[in-house]
Amino acid sequence: MATSKLGPDLIYNIQGSGATVDNAYGVFTNFAEVAAGGNVPTVKRLKTKAVWGDSTGELLTFYTSSAQSAASKVYYYEIWNSSSLTCDPIDVKMFSVSYGHYAGSGSVLSSGGEAGDTPTKAIYGQYRTVLLENSSSVGDATGFPSLFTNADGSSIEHFYVVNFNRDRIGDKIDPGNFELNLVELDGPSYANNVYTGSNVAVSSSNKVISLIDDSGDASDSLGYVGLPSPERNLVSGSITNGIYNPNAPHYYGKVYLDKCVILIDAAKLNESGSFNTVTGSNIAGDNSFKLFTSISGSGALGANNGFFARNVTMTESAYYYVRVFPSSLNYSNNPTFTYSPNDREKNTIRNTYLRNDPTIYVSSIGLYDNNYDLVAVAKMSQPIKKDFYTELSVTVRLEY
User: Are residues 15 and 119 in the same domain?
Assistant: First the structure.
């Protein structure tokens, strides 16, 4: 099926009880022969909705899963919207959180691996490969971008990551319509190398850091219909009030809309959120859990302190206007309609009455390319009567 050949040069074939064989009027009909403007250009549409599936678009409760293996938690934590984790549709994995360090600090050396071969280094390398492929960020000796860079020019040597579940996000994050709230942690209460596990907790200050992208326009995504969205900067601000201090924003990292990734500079969270990120060599810092603690702790403070997000789904629709005149396409090659080739009267109508006054019922419309390859089939909700006294007009919408 040559779907790659879809275009304005499509022709159509009406199928009733079988494919039409009345050569006097043609088996296939070109759209241009029916009427000028037999179709319209492809129309791109955007749909935006709340990522979390509720009317507010705010997620306030966050859970990790005991079913997730300990080996994978060294790299990331899966975050769910329910503690039951049943097969119920409302229990869904929403996103994952992770931590990466360019030199591999904050995690234990992999068994049998090379020096510096740690989970945090693997995470940094993974996101660098995926996100910096076409970036203009600072490069190493080979020209490959080695470090992420903030808009203020500072390098991001280690970062926290929010990676949306692709099933929830559609085509991309809706720029200008997400807000991540983080509550301050109690990092200063502990030495860096022991701020792990049960020592990690929310600060009593209840200080909340609100982060958004710097598009500054809730309808920004409309400017990139059908095109990749550029990376955005993660800044301090809110959906309601916009960017905090827009003339000199506080940069916290990057937002990759199409990749569904929010990357947060760990150094900025150490400074503003008291994360006290463990960066010692060969230490199981479990830093990913700090980000989970901060997100869930903020949500626990109540409405307007959770995680807001909307997604964008793009669909393309092509419209084809099928018009069949009364004198056209009134016969069928279905065996019940014609004699079989082995019969005395080959390819003639079995019922003599129908030879001059045929009646068929159209059940589908086939769209073909110029090589007569079937590329799409439109099904009628119910068969439509067609004879020499009836004109048929059908609009076919092809959506993909």
Answer: no
Least confident of 49-58, 111-120, 298-307: 111-120
Is the domain of 287 the same as that of 390? no
On whether both 112 and 61 belong to a single domain, the answer is yes
Distance of CA 176 to the CA centre of its chain: 16
3-state secondary structure of 33: helix
d(C-alpha 267, C-alpha 252), whole Å: 9
Contact 73, 86 (CB under 8 A): no
CB 234 within 8 A of CB 255: yes
Name the pairing type of β-strands 359-368 and 11-15.
Answer: antiparallel
Q: How far apart (Å, rounded) are the C-alpha atoms in residues 103 and 342?
A: 79
Range of the domain at 153: 52-308
Number of domains in the chain: 2
DSSP one-letter code for 19: B
Q: Among 283, 308, 333, where does a domain finish?
A: 308
CA-CA-CA-CA torsion sign (105, 287, 274, 214) = positive
Is the dihedral angle over the CA atoms 299, 164, 310, 273 positive or is it negative?
positive
Same domain, 170 and 274: yes
The whole model's pTM is what? 0.72
Q: Which of 308, 325, 357 is the last residue of a domain?
A: 308
Do 294 and 360 lie in a common domain?
no
Q: Are the C-beta atoms of 312 and 48 separated by less than 8 Å?
A: yes
Single out the residue of 86, 92, 96, 85 nearest to residue 52, CA to CA. 92
How buried is residue 73: exposed, middle or buried, by Cβ count under 10 Å (0-12/13-18/19+)?
middle
For residues 93 and 233, state if they share a domain.
Answer: yes
How many whole angstroms from its chain centre is CA 232? 17
SS3 339: coil
Asked whether residue 340 is assigned to any structural domain, the reply reads yes
Rounded Cα gap, residues 28 and 21, in angstroms: 9
Give first-to-last CA distance, the chain, whole Å.
Answer: 15
User: Within a domain: residue 47?
Assistant: no
Q: pLDDT tens for residues 327-359?
A: 877 777 666 766 655 555 555 677 776 767 788
* pLDDT tens, residue by residue, 62-86: 999 888 999 999 999 999 987 654 4
Interval 356-395: pLDDT, tens: 778 888 888 888 877 878 888 888 889 888 888 888 888 8
